[in-house]
Amino acid sequence: MHNRVIIALDFPAAQMAEQFLDHWRGEQKPFIKVGYQLFYSAGPQWIAKRKEEGYPIFLDLKLHDIPNTVAKGIESLGRLGIDFLTIHASGGRTMIEAARLAAEATAGRERMKLLAVTQLTSTDQQMLNEEIGIPGTVEECVSRYAQFAQKAGADGVICSGQEVSRVKQATSPSFLAVTPGIRPLGKDVQDQKRVVTPARAIRDGADYLVVGRPITRSADPVKSFWAIVEEIQQLGVGFDE
Ligand SMILES: O=c1ccn([C@@H]2O[C@H](COP(=O)(O)O)[C@@H](O)[C@H]2O)c(=O)[nH]1
């Protein structure tokens, strides 16, 4: 169950990320997410090393480009052995199909799972309609993106816990819903807009939670992490680990 909570390692340098991971010495290794802040400074070899050490890795690069460029980027990432990679659903069907082919071509024992970002959890209804220019509700947009991302070969989506049940209805139970924008009760939402508690996300069908600052900025990160794991464990939802 602890691997259902993915920690966003949003740190500026490898050394800071390693100091943070030292808190887990002697504990089961957590599922970690590396975004471009850390990836750009620490580099691909840092990821490969963590993988060798036994960390499940989610590389959150949110690829979004013409199909050929995304496919070539994925080929370069193939040898790192990452578990999850993000691409933007708004890159369109052909881009996702190319990403899937590249992920399959470079797969070792296990193929990386491709997660399509639907609408960022920092986007609210007004931004979607007035700034981004997409009509309709956030839920409608997210479930439409999820449907075509599945048809194009994505393994799941990144969405808010607010849309999980719609996404599962629009796709299938096995299509992954990975949810950032998680805030335990009483925690500051910061720049996130579509937030839910860990319990609500899992109750509504999320497969994985992504949690950054509520853990990384906590005075006791391991305790904050386990508090979230316990909150979802109490729901008694069964996962195949
Ligand atoms: O829609 C999205 C996609 C990705 N993220 C990433 O998740 C974490 C969340 O961090 P918090 O500190 O818990 O807010 C962060 O790395 C984002 O880049 C997201 O929040 N929303």
Keywords for this entry:
241 residues; alpha/beta; eight-stranded parallel β-barrel; binds ligand LLZGTKA7
Number of domains: 1
CA-CA gap between termini: 7 Å
CATH architecture: Alpha-Beta Barrel
Q: Please state the oligomeric state of the protein chains shown.
A: single chain
The H/E string reads EHEHHEHEHEHHEHEHEHH
The shape, in one word, is globular
Structural class comes to alpha/beta
Q: Spans of 5+ residues with little confidence (pLDDT < 50)?
A: none
Tally of helical segments: 11
CATH superfamily: Aldolase class I
Q: Which small molecules are bound?
A: ligand LLZGTKA7
Give the integer mean of the pLDDT values: 96
Quick one: how many beta strands? 8
CATH topology: TIM Barrel
**Could you tell me the radius of gyration in angstroms?**
17 Å
Q: Approximately what portion of the residues adopt beta-strand conformation?
A: 15-25%
Give, in spatial order, the strands making up the sheet with the most strands.
1-2-3-4-5-6-7-8
Helix content: 40-55%
The major sheet is characterized as: 8 strands, parallel, barrel
Q: What's the CATH C level?
A: Alpha Beta
